[in-house]
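Researcher: Quick sanity check before group meeting.
Model: Go ahead. Protein one:
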Amino acid sequence: MVRLSVVQLLPALNGGGVERGTLEVARELVRRGHRSVVISAGGRLVPDLISEGSEHLGWPLGVKSPLTLRWVWPLGRWLTEQRIDILHTRSRLPAWIGWLAWRGMDPATRPRFITTVHGLYSVSRYSAIMAHGERVIAVSETVRDYLRRHYPELPAERIQVIQRGVDPAAFPYGYQPSAAWLADWRQHYPQLGDAPVLTLAGRLSRLKGHEDFIELIARLRARGWPVRGLIVGGVEPRRQRYADQLRQKVRSLGLGEVILLTGHRNDMREIYAISTLVLSLSAQPESFGRTVLEALSLGTPVVGYDHGGVGEILARLYPAGLTPVGDLDALTTRVSELLAVAPPVPPEPVFPLQRMLDETLALYESLGQALRSFT
């Protein structure tokens, strides 16, 4: 086996699907004997990354400022000195910095340049950098369709669909939290009692459907369902006003003891497991929908808007959970039906993490062994 040196670029390592995917690939690289380096501005996941055998360079390549261009030359020099084989970028601004550095290197010795399109970005020259990879990884069929529709100049053979995955050992079907966790949970959130719990997970952003979720809970209770709602997600400083608006809306509807905003949590497996239903109500289509897949892996039913990656996952795994985008009447009816009688979630893992890792490392290895690009 040829030992590869692989660098992944992204803005920061604070949490989220992109960051967790980066750590999963880094861990697998180390397990297989390769060198793994992540370049980011840092964050709370850095200690985990380093403890698992990867290296980290604290370079802020994702700061939206003209000054960020000053990293182009140091990055190119470092890549040359370190004899990096694969340069894998996962976000737009780091991709620009990485591509500019890569383009200025000797074509005979520079790394292979890979991008992963994690989101359905606004179509622009800025976003087009994600189509510049020698290989472009699409995290779902939805993303591949987006690329082919908006960037027709990208040859179809350069796009490779590698769907995100969930480790069934980390999110085992039928999982039940420990007695200690349940006791602590009930102590912190006694308002939940034994009522059905509906959960919406994700950062606090206007696009994630929190207003629809709050309205859903109000409508269900008006129909006599004694449900409780959990909004689980961290608040970024620039979105504090939005978080305050959500809390005000909850209070104005008299749901202060019914809908709880928990903030960021590290125990999503347990929260999904105690949830009666998990909701995915993003106003715009998601590129994949990792939270949906994690909940389904545990066997927890999910209701989600029928578009993007969420619609793609539900259509394959749990079509009973599909509901038209933005239609609150249909959403309330569908959730009521599943609260009454929910079809079981199939136990077979359809998107296993190991398949994603195998396909990603196979791509690294095939490019690393091939002749370097002169384009």
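Researcher: Fine. The other one?
Model: Protein two, sequence then structure:
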Amino acid sequence: MKALIFVFIGGGSGSIARYLLGKLLNNSTNGIPYGTFAANILGSLLIGVILGWALKNNTLTSHNTLLLATGFCGGFTTFSTFAYENHALLKSGDFMTFVLYTIATFTVGIIAVFGGMELAKIF
């Protein structure tokens, strides 16, 4: 039960942070979902740092990892919004933005996880 509370608190915090970032960066006039992109990339970098730190230092408890990685990063990043936005791009006929957004999200997201893991080694 305690584990669920950590995930709940982290997930709620991450969701609020993603919402605020989306309000700040998403722009309905150009249709490019910068807020979602930023959340997914920052979340990927952050989970790399958190899990890299946990592996390197063995200082994070399982509850810390549930709060930060599973909860916060899980709530902060969003595949469902990414998928919906891609659907909207395809439906509007904006194929170039769809392709660039999709490739960039996957590529930069994976690079961000590796970068986060490397950053954790430095600290």
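Researcher: One line on it for the slide.
Model: DSSP finds five helices and no strands in the chain.
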